[in-house]
Amino acid sequence: MKRSVAAVAVALSVGLIGCDERSEAAPEASPPPSAEAPPAAAPTEVAPTPAPATVSDAMTIDGAPVFAALYPGAQIDSPATLASGPTGPGGLITFTTDAAPETVVAFYRQRAEAAGLSPVMAMNQGEARAYGAAARKDKGASLQVVASPGESGLTSVQLSWSAGA
Q: So what's the pLDDT on residue 87?
């Protein structure tokens, strides 16, 4: 399993290397909300689903920007590895969670967009999910997350970031 996480991480890194030129395209506009309410559906039995994690539930990582906080309930594998380079201070942390990979990626997508980062990469490979976002300026902030099913039904997550120079 660790090999598949490593392979996804390498693919994510290679994908981001090709994104040196930040996209200048404007984000797509969402359609306006419909004035008509949808018809009421007949009540059905639905299994309760856990509420998605919210931005306020996240735990901060020392030295990391706000958008690179820990997913709520994360079990850290080892302390974050921090470094500084041409794109500013950054880091890498791995952890596990009981949330599904797509839920984890959606959480980080929301945080990245709230911080003004634009999507630069998304990947679905089997049940593994990956997402990358970056600032539109050269040497700007960036975030990459890879989430894949792991042992004992937990999701294994690798989160890396750069705060930007």
A: 79
Percent of the chain with pLDDT over 90: 47
Cβ count near 33 (within 10 Å): 6
Q: Is 105 helix (H, G, I), strand (E, B) or coil?
A: helix
Is there a contact between 115 and 134 (Cβ–Cβ < 8 Å)?
no
How confident is the model over 28-61, as pLDDT tens digits?
444 444 444 444 444 434 333 344 444 445 677 8
HSE-up (13 A, CA, CB side) for residue 22: 17
Q: Which of 159, 161, 146, 153 shows the shortest CA–CA distance to 97?
A: 153
> How many whole angstroms separate alpha carbon 143 and alpha carbon 135?
9
Quote the strand ranges of 31-127, DSSP E.
Answer: 75-76, 81-85, 88-97, 118-125
Cα separation of 36 and 57, whole Å? 34
pTM for this prediction: 0.65
